[in-house]
Amino acid sequence: MSTFRLTIDGVEIEASEGQTIMDAADAAGIYIPRLCDHEGLRHQGGCRVCTVKANGRSVSACTQPAEPGLTVDNETPHINKLRRDLVEMLFHEGNHLCPICEASGNCELQAMAYRLDMTAPTKFPYLEPCRPVDASHPDIALDTNRCISCGRCIRASQDVDGKGVFGYVGRGIHRQVAVNGPDLAHTDADISDFAISQEVCPVGCIIRKRQGFARPIGEREFDRNLIGHKINGKRDD
Amino acid sequence: MHVTDTQLTQASNWPDVVGICETYANDPHRMLDILRAIQDRYRHISQEAMEVVARQTGLSKIAVEGVASFYAFLSSDPKGRITIRLCDDIVDRFAGLTEIVEAFESELGIRMDETSPDGTFSLEYTPCIGMCDQAPAAMVNDVILTHLTPEKVREIVARLKSGERPEDLISHRFDELSPRERADRMVDGNIRHAGAVLLGPVPEDAGLKASLNLTPAQIIDTVEASGLRGCGGAGFSAGRKWRFAAETDAERRFIICNADEGEPGTFKDRVLLTERPHLLVEGMTIAARAVGAREGIIYLRGEYVYLRELIEEVLADRRERGLLGDRILGEDGFDFDIRLQMGAGAYVCGEEGALISSCEGLPGEPKTRPPYPVTRGYLGFPTVVNNVETLCHVARILDRGSKWFFGMGTEGSHGTKLFSVSGDCRNPGVYELPYGHSVAELLEMAGGEEAAAVLVGGPSGTMIARDTFDRKLTFDDLATGGAIVVFSRERNILEIVEYYMSFFVHESCGYCTPCRVGNVFLQKAVGKFRKGLANQADIEYLRDLSATIIETSRCGLGMTSPNPILSTLENFPLVYSAMVKPSKDRTRATFDIQSAISDARHLAKRRSYIFDRDFGE
User: At B146, which CATH number?
Assistant: First the structure.
């Protein structure tokens, strides 16, 4: 496989054909913020948080192929501002009440907000959806008011579990994740599915019953480390 | 998904659904056709029907529901046997839509978005149906009605209630009329100016015959040398697009005609599809020969369903005459055929990736680029997607030569262009002009000299004011897919902007965050200006949010959706500043206690002792 070099924020890294900008950055220990992308799942390019400038042009790093000699801007003040806007949009699109959410501390949306310094009062209006919670399944509950439409559960169920429990329905602001049946209890969903595991849902939308607060808030992944630390850590090693 | 016994029993209760699926060989790529047929048959697509379709096509039910819930013309709730869709474009609003709505509501006894209890009538809004030159207009099932007045509405409803079919409103001899006669009786042509290329006299299949004397590479060279650029709005070189597709190694290649013009204010392709359908198919056939495609698709927007028969007839006629199918014009190895794909109410399908998704039976979501459609498009094969007008131009270029075409227009913008002119002007309709005319010249032809504002290129284009009407209609100055909407000084610019933002909110596919969510925020912010609740900082907020949406959106819809705001902020700044309230002592002068407590009133089911002065007295 042919390899070549490109630069991200002035750092020269190696990439190989077939890799996306994000693949190459991950391998080199440079973290590009992302929400809808997840290791082992198809790339979607929907959340746009991984927007970078490749030779000056806005692209999503998770879908854009790496190319020889590409100059990529990643963590510039301008790009981080765009990302902060996107993360704020997601906060305002759903109902994200961190203090009462079991995912707090493990939540990638919350962690991304901290990483991007979303510390001042936000400027957007709240859309305050009012969707019914689906607690029909004996082991799993779904609160789609907290969904950020990343679709990771859809791809995980379809491609990894081979089931297709989830899918998108609707269009535009009404587009949302739904289940393949009248409710979750009438689907093939199982607590042991990869799609249901903690690592797939980045927020507190997919809830595993009777497992809450096993690890206290304050000791969770992003309570201790900034999101992206695992990838950035590779570089420091 | 478990297939339970009950569901199997249900399938046998839906023999027509099974039959419809079988008509399309249970092919999941024909999902849109299947769902359209079910919608027509049952006036909705029920959960049970979706289960049956899923089983027949081998998909999950949620995948079927994903498609069914994406398109505006498909519905999971039962619609009336006669569904009346009123065109809700801003041009229709200014042409008296409110009175039309009132007339329909009072005559039918139902409100907008309702269905009559006996299941006969549904009344709803739909965005621009491509009839801005004859507004107010409506679709009644597959029939188009134009130039509506309250008197006409009363007559229409009375006749429908007496048992007449929507088709009878057009003619009592409807069934005897040819498809062309039907189209002509429903919709005016309104060709106001015929240019040299498309709307003047056109010899039959001269371009196709000429192409037989050229190699595929020579055809591409000819088109490239003509300077022809995509007429849908993006303006990419047609010849280069073809070259990329021809150069990609593949077993199959496709030519797709984008007849999904949905930009509010555009209707020029409607005229070409009616007046020059043979020229279009001729252009597609030439394109097929050039890039080595044997299969083609015409993607016709759902709103133009009234043209379906006309196009099917043209395709059948050409097959019969050896101009489509195997061995075209007797040439060995020149095989090409076309199928018609109906859309179902989704503006975003005009984006080429979304259009391909839709042809594949998926929700109309743009595809990730790269790969580009010319290398990996429909079903993964190299695909050329060209606009109707572009393909018509191709046929003429092959007949008259690239120099002839290149010689018209201006540097970088060669040939002629169709402009759809509507709004506040005396002669709305289609004008075919060489590139390079000024907006003022076009306004003079159309009888719109009094215009205060002109929207060039529809809402995703540019709104300009009187002081820049000398700007030129070229790719380098005011690039446009052809929509020219004229507004007189009586019109409220902010009302127009708010309408167009609501259009983009309605039409965003929802795939990416900035377009899905950001446009809702823009729409709300414009609403604040309209209500007089905006402050100075809100102008900066509009600019800032627009910039984020443009820079981070995934496709052209999101990259242009803030244009109504940005171009009016630029060209009509006083409209905004006049609505801004000064902030006193850095407090929010724009805070409105009444709207702030309205939710609380509603929840508490009582009014406020303090803020509702008359309460408790």
Answer: 3.40.30.10
